[in-house]
Amino acid sequence: MSQRGSGARRLFPGASEICVVLPRDGAALGPHGERALAGFRELLYRERAEIEAECGVPARFVDTDPGDGPRWLIGPAACNPAISTYPRRGEGQAGVWLDREREVLITDAPDLFGVIEAISLIRTLVMTGQDAVFVSECRDLDEAVERITREVGWTYPSFALRGLDWEAICARHREEVARASDPLAAMQTWLAELQDAHTWVKPSPAPVPLPYEVWVEGDTAVFTRVPQGTAAWDAGVRPGDVLLDEDTAGWWARTGSTPHAKPLMTGYRLLSTPVGVERTLAARRADGQRVEWREVGSIDPPYPLVTWTRLPSGSGYLRIEAWRADRDVDAAIDAAFADLAGTDRLIVDLRGNGGGNLALALSFRDRFLHEPTLLGSIRFSTGPGELSPPAPITGEPADERRRWHGAVRFLTDPMTYSASEDALLGLQGLPHVRVVGEPSGGGSGRPRMLRLLPGMTLTVSTALTYDRHGRCIEGAGIPVDHYVVPDRFSHGAEDTVLLAADRTW
């Protein structure tokens, strides 16, 4: 469990380059396969730095197998015919294979989700020195505890940044997990010490957040956002009302988060619910009345993910709730830009946007670039306590027709997280950009995904991002130009953050 390493192991020692052979036949994946595969390919292109850190050499993307030299063939095999030319043990399973003699790395699975799981196993293959590793659940709780211990110890990039001793953390929790009546909760409490919402043990399938925001402090949970049209709103619940009958103290202990985001992140975890599962909630209103209502977990909130309007001042206002490529968020942003084209001032509200599709968020970022721009840098963990050299993060301006040409103000809070921070990274500090509100949540992410026991999945951060001034985003968040604390707990209060942003032109 040592946090020190003897140097990152490389897949292809002595190589100067690796050819990454991409899947290209999306039709083989079914009716929506072409779109899904196009998004996957775009993500791979944009995350070249991660691929190069994994492989230890520069990467070149190709569509056909060159036949010699180090190469990585990415499935599904139905979309990448070259994979079938390399017979291997366990063919057809989700996994990763390394043929050292022929210098071929293969990640394959029947579908794209399985391929993503298989890619997460490359580090396991490097760590163990094996020739093949398959996506699999642990045989028992002891193996799950050992998997967490080894994989987090090998992968987590922030031990030094946060001053954490993984051996000591494991010593405090391993036996507690073994004795626990609820191992999932005990595992979550263990990993909460890492202060990272990306590094956690999640129920599987993953629950989805209910459409509210709740601030947890001590044993109290207070609503801070209750959108109109939701079940809680219809029951009479408003910001400032108190959520009742929930284990707030338990969820506080189980929630990994940066300190400044933890009150809201705990509320997010507490209110997350499996899709299709009904849940009864209760609240105490300001008048002392107790109200109850029922909620069903849904992947789609009861309001649009993208909304826009023109403010009385004439400034445009655009709110984006989440980065969902499967819900036409990009097309909605196109429509918003078209409707707001008559103004040269735009306020983009990313408060509460906890992330989602990274490629979509980066595409949005590029809409605000006027020229090729160095935005910051990224480093990846390469072994226990080790980080890759900084790789530059650069951005290219979007097509002229999709670009915003005027000034822009971004609104952020501690729940502006993950992909939303990637959307903002490097925009802050540009002459036409200001960030208003509170610092974002501080999560660099790029998490691996590893199965544990049935219904449990481990995710582990792999990266640290930095802005162009060298400030690390992990743990600190995107800095703001104008710090404004909102009145979270008063129904009908003015939006002081929005008003402040509209005065900064």
Automatic annotation (TrEMBL):
Molecular functions (GO terms): endopeptidase activity; serine-type peptidase activity
Any one GO BP annotation for this protein: signal transduction
GO cellular component: outer membrane-bounded periplasmic space
Source organism superkingdom: Bacteria
Pfam name, any one: Peptidase_S41
Gene3D superfamilies: 2-enoyl-CoA Hydratase, Chain A, domain 1 (3.90.226.10)
InterPro entries linked to this entry: ClpP/crotonase-like_dom_sf, Tail-specific_protease
Domain Tail specific protease positions: 276-485
Protein name per Swiss-Prot or TrEMBL: Peptidase S41
The organism of origin for this protein: Sphaerobacter thermophilus (strain ATCC 49802 / DSM 20745 / KCCM 41009 / NCIMB 13125 / S 6022)
